[in-house]
Design goal:
single chain, 185 residues, alpha+beta, six-stranded antiparallel beta sheet, two-stranded antiparallel ribbon, 8 strands
Length: 185
């Protein structure tokens, strides 16, 4: 995956040939979701590694969404329509804007409580956790398929990059009450 190692091309989508595993709506499973998440090697790929003052959870979320065949766009028009990078009238989204648009019902994502979200992810369906920061960048992570739904684990880029991370490690225990969950079929 050559594009995953590019530090200067985060604003561009991955080349479709770099996405080896996809999960389609009619063939979702925990196994396919695990393959989708694993291929991005979020713990090591330079595309997602933190830089001074910058993290890239939104880029990881965008890439994974593409492999799931769902929208969680990094580029949108003013009305929220996904756009190609650099398209006339388009702008790059940050996590806080993604969260606000998800709350407003954008792109087919449905709000979920934590237990149904864990169940959705365990079935291999696209499921995210997202937090809005009112004084800086927010955070978004993908729920891992986990048969033990008592605990929620995520794959994420950010201050910490990796997989199988407890939700409270990813977002901070003090923020858990502010984390929202969204899923798709």
């Amino acid at each position: 995956m050559t594009r995953l190692d590019s530090r200067t091309q985060r604003h561009l989508p991955l080349d479709p040939v770099d996405i080896m595993f996809r999960s389609t709506r009619d063939a979702r499973s925990a196994e396919s979701a695990d393959l989708v998440l694993a291929q991005f090697d979020v713990g090591r790929a330079l595309r997602y590694q933190r830089e001074p003052g910058k993290t890239f959870c939104n880029i990881f979320a965008w890439d994974v969404a593409g492999a799931f065949g769902v929208e969680l766009p990094h580029w949108i028009l003013a009305d929220g329509t996904p756009a190609k990078p650099g398209a006339a009238g388009a702008h790059e989204t940050l996590t806080n804007e993604l969260r606000d648009r998800l709350v407003a019902g954008a792109w087919g994502w449905k709000p979920m409580d934590p237990v149904p979200a864990a169940q959705n992810a365990a079935r291999g369906r696209p499921t995210i956790a997202i937090w809005r920061n009112h004084s800086g960048p927010g955070h978004v992570a993908w729920l891992e398929p986990n048969s033990d739904q008592a605990d929620i684990y995520v794959a994420q880029a950010g201050a910490l990059c990796g997989r199988h991370m407890p939700l409270e490690t990813a977002f901070g225990k003090h923020r858990l009450g502010q984390v929202l969950f969204f899923g798709q079929p």
